[in-house]
Amino acid sequence: MRHPTFRIILTLVSLHHLTGSIQVAKIGLNDNTFKTIPRHFWHDISPPYTDLPDDDVEEESEESTTHDPYPFFDETNMTANVTTQLGNDVYLHCRVNDLRERTVTWVRRKGDDIHLITVGRHTYSSDSRYSLQYQAPNDWQLLIQYANERDEGLYECQISSHPPLVFLVYLIVVGKLKQQQQQQSFLSQGNRIPISLLRVK
């Protein structure tokens, strides 16, 4: 441990370099030079060469509190309704910003049951009509081909953040079957359905 006299000399040397007004010499604890210095003076000065500059401390504090941007959806109300005709292909859109390393998942909710459809760009549904179609820069579209009445209901686009973010899409399927529409188009052109295809109720 350094003698107190040595520490006082070092402090005076530092002051001499800053102001040029103090003559430094080897002095003792009882020297009259110290009588002109306030008693609290030494408590107001930090030990030399030990503290970091204030700027460095602030920079370290800022670095420790920096976080990655949090993902968010284009749709501010977090919900959407989509209507399609029976037999048509339909796209359910999910536009995500600042996704980074997180994953987008589509699921189908039926009451308390949740059915996994896609994770990232991979499809896990046993129904081949479902697939993920990504459109740059941020649209994770769920494609449903040949929509039917069973496809109607609630779908969720989920982001694997903490806590998870969920975008809800409710699909409504209306109209007649595509096959019936084709038959109507066939008849409107003046064609006749063969008698063998007609059924009498």
Structure description:
The protein has 3 helices and 11 strands, in the order ααβββββββββββα. The chain is of the alpha+beta class and 201 residues long. It has a 6-stranded mixed sheet, with no helix packed on it. Strands 3-9-8 form a 3-stranded antiparallel sheet, with no helix packed on it. Strands 1-4 form a two-stranded antiparallel sheet.
Uncertain runs with pLDDT below 50, 5 residues or more?
15-19, 21-29, 195-201
Strand order of the largest sheet: 2-11-10-5-6-7
| Portion of residues within helices | 10-25%
**In terms of structural class, how would the helical and strand content be classed?**
alpha+beta
**What is the CA–CA distance across the termini?**
110 Å
Number of helices: 3
Order of helices and strands: HHEEEEEEEEEEEH
- Shape, principal axes of CA atoms: elongated
Strand elements, count: 11
Taking all Cα atoms into account, the compactness measure Rg is 38 Å
Domain Ig-like: 71-161
InterPro entries: Ig-like_dom, Ig-like_dom_sf, Ig-like_fold, Ig_sub, Ig_sub2, Ig_V-set, Zig-8
Keywords: Signal
Signal peptide: 1-21
Q: What are the defining features of this structure?
A:
201 residues; alpha+beta; six-stranded mixed beta sheet; three-stranded antiparallel beta sheet; 3 helices; 29% strand; disordered C terminus; Ig-like_fold
Tell me briefly what this model is:
The chain is an alpha+beta fold and 201 residues long.
Spell out the blueprint of helices and strands.
Blueprint: H1 4-19, H2 54-64, E1 72-73, E2 79-85, E3 90-92, E4 96-97, E5 104-110, E6 113-119, E7 122-123, E8 130-135, E9 139-144, E10 153-159, E11 165-174, H3 178-188
Parallel strand pairs: 2-11
Antiparallel strand pairs: 1-4, 3-9, 5-6, 5-10, 6-7, 8-9, 10-11
Protein name: Ig-like domain-containing protein
Pfam families: V-set
Keywords: Signal
